[in-house]
Write a structure and sequence with these properties.
Radius of gyration of chain A: 22 Å
Number of helices of chain B: 7
Shape of chain A: flat
Largest interface: A-B, 53 and 49 residues
CATH topology of the largest domain in chain B: Rossmann fold
Helix content of chain B: 10-25%
Largest sheet of chain B: 7 strands, mixed
Structural class of chain B: alpha/beta
Strand content of chain A: 15-25%
Oligomer: heterodimer
CATH architecture of the largest domain in chain B: 3-Layer(aba) Sandwich
Number of strands of chain A: 12
Number of domains of chain A: 1
Number of strands of chain B: 15
Strand content of chain B: 25-35%
Structural class of chain A: alpha+beta
Largest sheet of chain A: 8 strands, mixed
Number of helices of chain A: 10
Order of helices and strands of chain B: EEHEEEHEEHEHEEHEHEEEEH
CATH class of the largest domain in chain B: Alpha Beta
Distance between the termini of chain B: 44 Å
Radius of gyration of chain B: 18 Å
Strand order of the largest sheet of chain A: 3-2-6-7-8-9-1-10
Chain lengths: 345, 281
């Protein structure tokens, strides 16, 4: 296996930070978040699952799509796309899998999204394998694993004295040119362990979560389980905010400057949430999805029925963030177990 | 840095070439596109397609295109003043810049229904995407059978395209029936819901197709009445409305189950609508 030390890694990251937008896990007032860093000194190397996914760096929570300048009757439009290359260091494998889920819609479904594609192309993903599964984690039930290199460009795994380095893509190999690597005997250790042996938060293997195929979900659309789980939903939308695959967006304009003869406007894209109260309300005031159970049902159907039917992958990677952040303890694993039980799986 | 290739979220630039009052709170906006790419994109749009109109500074919203390419390169939209974007559009003057994205969505299968009798049912501003259907039928009158137009509004002042009624009535094999929910001192015509008018007119289902647009509750009850008259769901076309932010199947806003109104529709056969996992109602 290829091996590097923490010191070499830090030197390489410091160098990268000069030429790239470097995003990495950082301590922000006691919260671990993927955030821009200026040097390796700000980066956490031993951290749990960051509280928010990396979605923000590909489909930003707020993104300027167009800059519009109006001078009298004349309007100019400028498309806004950052020039700099971006490196996401320390991304967890579940978050990288979340990007593959978004790719199925934003890249593979015609027409591709110009902005998302640009962010994907300018970014290299350097993952850091999770040493264990954390509270709420169920990636191993959603086709992933704490050390899954599939969706990354490079995967690092902590080993004695440093990191095992797996080069996954050519893009990853190109980025690694400046990193001092040495060859060592053996394979990166966690890979030799089967998924069942990943320790959950209380030790031991996490209980598997069943995934019911889309066609069986269709029979459960009017099932009482949606009322049961949905009635305690607060429509707070935190589940969609923390989710690596929730992608609904809103588009609006904001006026940034008004001077005599000149108005500058930005067209903004911002995250939206199908769990919000008036999400489906139409111009005449009719709302075909007026209740919380119906809206919660839509979110789960999107992830496990509509998205796989329309675009391929499941809309969930098992990161568990919605479980730990829901203020009323709606637990996606419980919902999935209920669906499996009700459908006789 | 600019993109290589087409950015479907960038509107084509244009300006307001004309604004006309259509009904209380409803104006007809005539837009001339000034960029050659936009003119090319809208060279051959179809009845039932929609587009996003930008009021720069307020945002953009989707509207059914209410013109046909046969009217010339000017695009027309009938827009009700109900929200932020539409209110901003209503304040604009001729010459003011606007943007248009599209054409988007599918369209009424005008070729497939050639030779058949057509019943067009429009409720209020729902008449906007049906005007291109009526124009297409009248422009190619010999290609279609009898045309029955049932046109409704909540009150007389909300009837749209009133200046075209004489043209519609005088066309061969064409009848126009109007109704309003509530009349006023000027109104001597039918008073009542479009479903009552539909029962009264009683179009025959043989070799006929119906095309409906209006509020969801109207579409629902028109469908029930048409069934009573002997029409089957695969004779009924409708166009559905939904709030949306992209029009290209990405933003998620307009989903009905696994369908997207923007890319799977907005035009559907009622036989498809009946199979939807999630109701539009």
């Amino acid at each position: 296996m290829k091996f590097t030390t923490l010191d070499e890694l830090r030197a390489w990251l410091n160098h990268l930070a000069q030429e790239h937008d470097l995003i990495a896990p950082r301590d922000v007032d006691g919260h671990v978040l993927y955030r821009p860093v200026a040097s390796s000194g700000e980066i956490l190397f031993d951290y749990e699952r960051p509280e928010l996914s990396t979605k923000d760096y590909f489909l930003p929570a707020t993104e300027v799509l167009l800059r519009t300048e109006r001078r009298g009757g004349d309007v100019t439009l400028e498309e806004v796309l950052p020039d700099r290359k971006q490196v996401l260091f320390g991304i967890r494998p579940c978050d990288a899998q979340g990007l593959t889920v978004l790719d199925a819609l934003f890249l593979q479904q015609e027409p591709p999204d110009v902005y998302y594609r640009h962010h994907r192309e300018r970014t290299t993903l350097v993952g850091l394998a999770c040493p264990q599964m954390w509270e709420g984690c169920f990636c191993t039930s959603m086709g992933g694993a704490p050390d899954d290199p599939t969706h990354l460009d490079v995967l690092l795994t902590a080993v004695d004295g440093g990191y095992a380095v797996q080069v996954v893509t050519e893009k990853g190999a190109a980025l690694l040119e400046g990193l001092a690597l040495e060859e060592r005997e053996g394979e990166p250790p966690p890979q030799s362990l089967p998924p069942q042996s990943w320790g959950g938060p209380r030790g031991g293997a996490p209980k598997p979560v069943p995934v019911t195929p889309p066609e069986k979900w269709r029979a459960l659309f009017e099932d009482g389980l949606w009322q049961r789980h949905g009635e305690r939903c607060l429509s707070c939308r935190i589940c969609t905010y923390v989710c690596p695959t929730c992608r609904c967006f809103d588009v609006t304009d904001r006026v940034v400057e008004v001077r005599p003869g000149l108005t500058r406007i930005e067209r903004i894209r911002a995250w939206d949430a199908c769990t919000s109260t008036n999400y489906r309300r139409i111009a005449g005031g009719h709302n075909p999805r007026p209740t919380k159970p119906e809206r919660l049902r839509n979110r789960f159907y999107c992830k496990f029925c509509y998205y796989p039917e329309d675009f391929g992958p499941l809309g969930c990677v098992g990161c568990g963030r919605c479980i730990v952040s829901c203020p009323v303890n709606i637990d996606i694993r419980e919902v999935l177990r209920d669906v499996a039980e009700r459908s006789g799986e | 840095m600019s993109t290589s290739g087409i950015n479907p979220l960038r509107p084509y630039l244009g300006h307001l070439a004309g604004v006309k009052d259509l009904a209380t709170g409803i104006k007809l906006f005539q837009i001339e596109l000034t960029e050659s790419e936009g003119q090319a994109a809208f060279a051959d749009y179809k009845p039932g397609q929609f587009a996003f109109v930008s009021a720069f500074g307020a945002g953009e919203a989707p509207f059914g295109i209410t013109s046909t390419p046969a009217l010339g390169p000017t695009l027309e939209f009938a827009i009700n003043n109900v929200g932020h974007v539409t209110n901003t559009l209503h304040q604009l003057d001729v010459g003011d810049p606007v943007g248009v994205r599209g054409p988007l969505g599918n369209w009424f299968p005008m070729n497939e229904i050639k030779g058949r009798n057509v019943v067009v049912l429009g409720g209020g501003i729902g008449g906007a995407p049906l005007r291109p259907v009526i124009h297409t039928l009248l422009d190619h009158r010999a290609d279609y059978g009898h045309l029955t137009i049932l046109w409704a509004a909540r009150s007389p002042d909300l009837l749209v395209f009133t200046d075209e009624y004489d043209n519609w009535r005088s066309a061969a094999e064409t009848e126009l029936h109007l109704t309003v929910d509530r009349g006023d001192e000027t109104w001597s015509g039918n008073v009542g819901l479009i479903t009552q008018l539909l029962e009264k007119v009683g179009p025959l289902p043989q070799s006929a197709v119906t095309i409906t647009c209006g509020p969801p509750i109207m579409i629902h009850f028109v469908t029930l009445t048409l069934k009573k008259l002997g029409f089957t769901l695969d004779q009924m076309l409708t166009t559905l409305e939904a709030r949306m932010h992209c029009g290209i199947g990405k933003c998620g806003r307009c989903n009905l189950g696994e369908k997207f109104v923007c890319t799977d529709g907005p035009v559907f056969w009622q036989s498809e609508v009946a199979g939807f996992l999630e109701s539009f109602l």
